[in-house]
Amino acid sequence: MNPWWLRPPAEEAPSKEEKPKQPAARSQEEKDPDPSDQRSAPSPRRSGRGRGSRRRSSPAGKTQSRTVEPRRIAVLYDVDNIARGLGSAELQQLDLDLVLQRLAEKGRVVAKRAYGDMQRSSDQEAVVRAAGLEIIDTPRDDGSGESAAEMKLALDAAELCFSREACEIFVLISGNAGFVPLVTKLREAKAEVLGLGIRGFVSADLEKGCDDYLYHDALMPPPAPEPVQNEVEDEKEPIFSQLVETIETLEAGDGGIVWGSILKQEMRRRHPGFDVSGLGYSTFTDLLEDAERHEVIRLGRDDRSGGYFVESITRQ
Predict the structure, then answer these.
(1) Which of 144, 203, 209, 255 gets the most CB atoms within 10 Å of its CB?
(2) CATH T-level assignment (fold) for domain 72-219
(3) What is the pLDDT of residues 289-303, one digit of tens each?
(4) Which CA distances in Å does 36 have to 29, 32, 43, 51, 117?
(5) pLDDT of residue 274
């Protein structure tokens, strides 16, 4: 028998060779807690959130629900260049209001500026102000004759392209080849560049460098056609005047009926170079009928001979 001091204590931990004891089975009360007991812990959920937690929407969900913002547009107007183009094409003004209306279909215009020597292009200043463009007056150097408009326009374009709220579309109203490097840099920065200029006064390199280039006449609505009657009347006004004068002379002479055949002979006598074929008529009768259609004279027809005679002059 071992002495008591050599016996292991009753609560000593089991040795490494001994297997750990399994936890005792829970009682029936622990397995099925009383639903009425509010202190009992809620059953765990798959998401790991408690009953009181709020569901959060994912970032992807927020991206899908966001409305698409309109594209930001910058309009940069080279006044001096366009003024020279208008003068060469013998045009009056560029319709900036129409340009801005068309751009509203592509996005939101956030910057619209006009660069140039307003003292030299004073006729353009009123049009620019009426369209709401900010004027950047860049007078020319009296010594060199150069303007700082190109440099200022390029610097502003770079600022608008690389600013915090960058513009995505640049509308360059110019035909100047000096802006080709600027257009290249803007497109490298993933900006869309649209050009606008005067037909026949645009650099081919600039036109090719832009994503799209429009001419001012493509934006303008087609002119309303003039009435055919007025066009013909203006073209035939000299011959109609001669016809009326000859009829008045014959009526004043004998006061009888002015027959078409007699009228033709008198016009040849008074105007030796008279030739209806050169005026687009096949016969003298065609000329009389055309004059009646344009309400210059009123004709009558003889039932027996079928010939025309002049009843009256209807245009004074």
Answers:
(1) 209
(2) Rossmann fold (3.40.50)
(3) 988 888 889 898 887
(4) 13, 12, 14, 17, 88
(5) 78
Strand partners, 193: 170
**Burial profile 246-274: b = 16 or more Cβ within 10 angstroms, e = fewer:** bbeebeeeeeeebbbeebbebbeeeeeeb
For tokens 């060199």, what's the residue?
144
Name the amino acid, one letter, at 91. Answer: L
Terminal Cα-to-Cα distance of the chain (whole angstroms)? 159
What is the C-alpha to C-alpha distance for residues 236 and 47, in angstroms, rounded to an integer?
93
Every domain of the chain and the residues it spans: 72-219, 228-313
Q: What is the dihedral of CA 159, 120, 178, 162, to 10 degrees?
A: 10
DSSP string spanning 283-302? Answer: SHHHHHHHHHHTTSEEEEE-
Residue stretches of the chain with pLDDT short of 70: 1-67, 88-92, 141-147, 219-234, 254-255, 315-316
The strands making up 169-173's β-sheet, listed across from edge to edge, are 134-137, 108-116, 72-78, 169-173, 192-197, 212-215
Give the tens place of pLDDT for each residue, 73-98.
Answer: 999 999 988 888 887 666 667 788 88
- Give yes or no on whether 72-219 and 228-313 have one common fold: no
Instruction: Give the model's pLDDT for residue 20.
Output: 55
Q: DSSP characters for 34-91?
A: -TT-TTSPPPP-TT---TT------HHHHHHHSPPPPPEEEEEEEHHHHHHHHHHTT-
> 261: which DSSP letter?
H
| CATH number for the domain whose boundaries are 228-313 | 1.10.10.10
> How much is the pTM?
0.50
- Say which residues have a Cβ less than 8 Å from residue 311's Cβ, sequence separation at least 6: 297, 298, 299, 300
User: Average pLDDT, whole number, for the chain?
Assistant: 77
Radius of gyration of the chain (CA): 47
Residue type, 238: P
